[in-house]
């Protein structure tokens, strides 16, 4: 926990470890990177009390993070959480919850995870995503058309937020006339961070009801969409049940929505703060090149990505990570944002380098839960940035970067609003 050499007396000013930073404050939400640098150096596997009061371990070094993400002794099933099992007096997920939307890829382990991931991969194919590119471009242009004449916009609400909602609804096969309902339900979830408030619970319930009905209709009358693909997918004679298909559609929407909002928001924010790199990207796009755009989106993900911490994992047995003893049932949170700035892995980790080549970042996770939607996220991220920079060439922040407010949830990192100005088109 402390790297003071054994022969140096405590309190020696030359060698004293600077005091531990305060986590989860407003300053931390705005810029967590100095605190993560401290943790990586002085307490790389760090036990902390989360704002919810739950105790958890934060894993901040790249090598430990990558290993932890692939460690099958770390379960995704919340039933393994010592505190929750103790508090509920039982070890399993309550039966009534099993049928609902929460039994999804990010909450289960093999062999269930292997089976569901194999089935969804048959429907969520790279080909389906590649064929979807023209539709993403059309959506991107339509949203920009909606504000380009004003000369100002809030890029989060008018662009980054609706783009992934409409894209995923289209992909799933939600009819256009119903997509604004999804926008409203998803808006409720993002505003209240998925907490146990009435509005969120009602939105989840409505979405579940809608998805089950849609699955039922698609079974009768299949189309070329992802939900029909999920219903059709079979593996060794096994199919998804209707509840599993609804949970799958829900996690695709849930995992693919706020992440993409933040990818667009954080990336635009970063580019506006790095005018030289942004100009270089604009020149490359104007010349019809796509390479810098592709490496650039990966670098923006590494430098200030949308997922700050990977989702919850629980030790199924006592184990060691980076020399720290983790108890059975302890929650382990892998801090992707800290790992992706580890100087042991990345040269000049705090520097944005859109052309960075050696860039095996952990922004999409690693191991069996590696992001299913990475090809769609890349497609949306690249289309959004390229189109914004081409159509709004003098895009600039309206106000000061220091006035921007970050959402401050535990897992995701993203802006509440991103007010911009530009010459009206
Ligand atoms: C899993 C990041 C977009 C669907 C993950 C994980 C990360 C991640 C870090 C692993 C979490 C963990 O291991 O705890 C991102 C980022 C995105 C993005 C940074 C955008 C920039 C999307 C999109 C979709 C999607 C667009 C779908 C449309 C999923 C699903 C999983 C997942 C279903 C769970 C996979 C599994 O457990 O097998 N994502 N994601 N993601 N992502 Fe994404």
Automatic annotation (TrEMBL):
InterPro entries to which the protein is assigned, alphabetical: Cyt_P450 (IPR001128), Cyt_P450_B (IPR002397), Cyt_P450_sf (IPR036396)
Lineage top rank: taxon: Bacteria
PANTHER family, per the entry: CYTOCHROME P450 YJIB-RELATED, P450, PUTATIVE (EUROFUNG)-RELATED
Membership in a protein family: Belongs to the cytochrome P450 family.
Membrane-spanning intervals of the chain: none
Protein name: Cytochrome P450
Pfam families attached to this UniProt entry: p450 (PF00067)
């Amino acid at each position: 926990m402390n790297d003071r050499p054994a022969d140096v007396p405590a309190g020696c000013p030359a060698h004293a470890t600077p005091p531990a930073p305060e986590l989860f404050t407003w300053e931390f939400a705005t810029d967590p990177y100095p605190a993560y640098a401290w943790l990586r150096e002085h307490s790389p596997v760090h036990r902390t009390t989360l704002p919810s009061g739950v105790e958890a371990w934060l894993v901040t070094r790249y090598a430990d993070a990558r290993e932890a993400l692939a460690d099958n002794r770390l379960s995704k099933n919340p039933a393994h959480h010592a505190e929750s099992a103790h508090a509920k007096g039982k070890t399993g997920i309550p039966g009534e919850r099993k049928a609902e939307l929460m039994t999804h890829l990010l909450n289960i382990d093999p062999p269930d995870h292997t089976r569901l991931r194999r089935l969804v991969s048959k429907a969520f194919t790279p080909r389906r995503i590649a064929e979807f590119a023209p539709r993403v471009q059309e959506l991107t242009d339509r949203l920009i058309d909606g504000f380009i004449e004003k000369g100002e916009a809030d890029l989060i609400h008018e662009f980054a937020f609706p783009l992934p909602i409409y894209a995923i609804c289209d992909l799933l096969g939600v009819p256009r006339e119903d997509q604004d309902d999804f926008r409203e339900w998803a808006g409720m979830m993002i505003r209240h961070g998925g907490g146990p408030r009435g509005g969120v619970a009602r939105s989840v319930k409505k979405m579940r009801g809608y998805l089950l009905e849609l699955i039922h209709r698609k079974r009768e009358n299949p189309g070329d969409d992802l939900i029909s693909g999920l219903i059709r997918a079979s593996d060794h004679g096994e199919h998804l049940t209707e509840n599993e298909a609804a949970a799958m559609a829900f996690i695709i929407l849930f995992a693919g929505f706020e992440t993409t909002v933040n990818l667009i928001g954080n990336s635009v924010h970063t580019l506006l703060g790095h005018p030289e790199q942004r100009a270089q990207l604009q020149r490359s796009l104007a010349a019809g090149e796509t390479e810098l755009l592709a490496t650039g989106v990966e670098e923006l993900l590494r430098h200030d990505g949308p997922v700050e911490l990977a989702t919850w994992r629980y030790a199924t047995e006592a184990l060691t990570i980076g020399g720290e003893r983790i108890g059975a049932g302890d929650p382990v949170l892998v801090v992707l944002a800290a790992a992706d700035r580890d100087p042991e892995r990345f040269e000049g980790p705090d520097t944005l380098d859109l052309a960075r080549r050696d860039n095996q970042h952990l922004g999409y996770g690693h191991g069996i839960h590696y992001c299913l939607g990475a090809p769609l996220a890349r497609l949306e991220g690249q289309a959004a940035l390229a189109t914004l920079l081409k159509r709004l060439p003098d895009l600039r922040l309206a106000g000061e970067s220091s006035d921007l407010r970050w959402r401050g949830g535990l897992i995701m990192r993203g802006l509440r609003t991103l007010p911009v100005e530009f010459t009206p088109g």
